[in-house]
Amino acid sequence: MAEKLVVYDSYFGNTEKIAQAIGEALGDATVRKVNDIREQDKDDLKIMFIGSPTRAFNATPAIMTFIKSLPKGKLDGVQAAAFDTRINPEQTESRFLKFMIKLFGYADVKIANALTKAGAELPIESAGFGVTGTEGPLLDGEIERAKSWADQIL
Ligand SMILES: Cc1cc2nc3c(=O)[nH]c(=O)nc-3n(C[C@H](O)[C@H](O)[C@H](O)COP(=O)(O)O)c2cc1C
């Protein structure tokens, strides 16, 4: 059983660091990589954070599949929040990429929409945390920012 669950996906460890920080802020939370989720993690949920690296303007397939696979009603009354990690657009020289980012956005919104569709309540705005390059590291201050963002749900 996990009243507070943080589910994340991560290739290079940056989203994992944000997920762990959110888990610390929540206290008593289960923090689990999406492919390691156990059946009992989904019991008695009250708060659930879901995060993914932004890849091709979206969350990872594993994260989206996880949300879609939740049984109907599982998220009724659950307070949920979505987050991602992403490259700071200021760092890219490519005007085309900046344009694409503006058009297609980030994983946090895709996760938030899927959570709403699945019946969760989203009391706080989703959030994105910046990495300095594809493999990170995270921008300075992002761990602390993640903690105070997550605190808002309590
Ligand atoms: C194949 C691929 C696609 C990516 N697509 C985007 C993107 O659309 N927007 C963005 O801001 N960052 C993009 N990135 C950068 C990732 O967001 C970055 O690698 C991620 O935040 C690192 O998180 P992780 O360490 O948890 O894997 C992409 C990276 C890769 C490798």
Please give a structural write-up.
The protein is an alpha/beta fold and 154 residues long. The chain has a single domain, classed as Flavodoxin domain (Rossmann fold, 3-Layer(aba) Sandwich). The chain has 5 helices and 5 strands. It has a 5-stranded parallel β-sheet with strand order 2-1-3-4-5. Helix 2 (61-69) links the parallel strand 3 (47-53) and strand 4. The protein is globular. The two termini are 19 Å apart. It binds flavin mononucleotide. Flavin mononucleotide binds at residues 10-16, 53-57, 85-87, 131, 134, 136.
Features:
154 residues; 5 strands; alpha/beta; binds flavin mononucleotide; Rossmann fold
Helices and strands, with pairings:
Blueprint: E1 4-8, H1 14-26, E2 30-33, E3 47-53, H2 61-69, E4 79-87, H3 95-104, H4 107-117, E5 127-131, H5 142-151
Parallel strand pairs: 1-2, 1-3, 3-4, 4-5
Helix pairs in contact: 1-5
The chain binds flavin mononucleotide.
